[in-house]
Amino acid sequence: MASRVQKCVCQVKSDYAFQRTKFVVKQQQQHTQRKSSFQSLSQVQAQAREAMAEQEYTIPVFRERSAEEREEYQRVSTHVEKGLSVIQEELHRMRMATKAQVDSLAIDREVRSRSGP
Predict the structure, then answer these.
(1) Highest mean pLDDT among 29-33, 58-62, 104-108
(2) Which stretches of 18-96 are assigned E, i.e. beta strand?
(3) Per the structure, how many domains does the chain have?
(4) Domain that holds residue 30
(5) Residues 46 and 89 placed together within one structural domain of the fold
(6) Residue 113 in domain
(7) pLDDT of residue 36
(8) Taking the complete model, does pTM exceed 0.85, yes or no?
């Protein structure tokens, strides 16, 4: 009977060792899979960053200007900006004047409607 118990104990120990080894191997495989998937993920992210990065703009040959042409362009664009700001200010004044006239007409109509009949 004692030998039978020892045999069962040995069987349980070997089954435990087998299961433990199987578990450890499975854990190691999962770890390597996670590690490899992390590496592939970081590679994909790096490729995505490269793809999304803006390429440096290079001026085409036909658009290149000399120093004098650039100076003239800046001078003209400055004058255009000043002219544009003057036009915008005048437009704002016209809008405010129109709004004031509309409000005045609305007040006149209201006064007439209250005092008229």
Answers:
(1) 104-108
(2) none
(3) 2
(4) 1-50
(5) no
(6) yes
(7) 64
(8) no
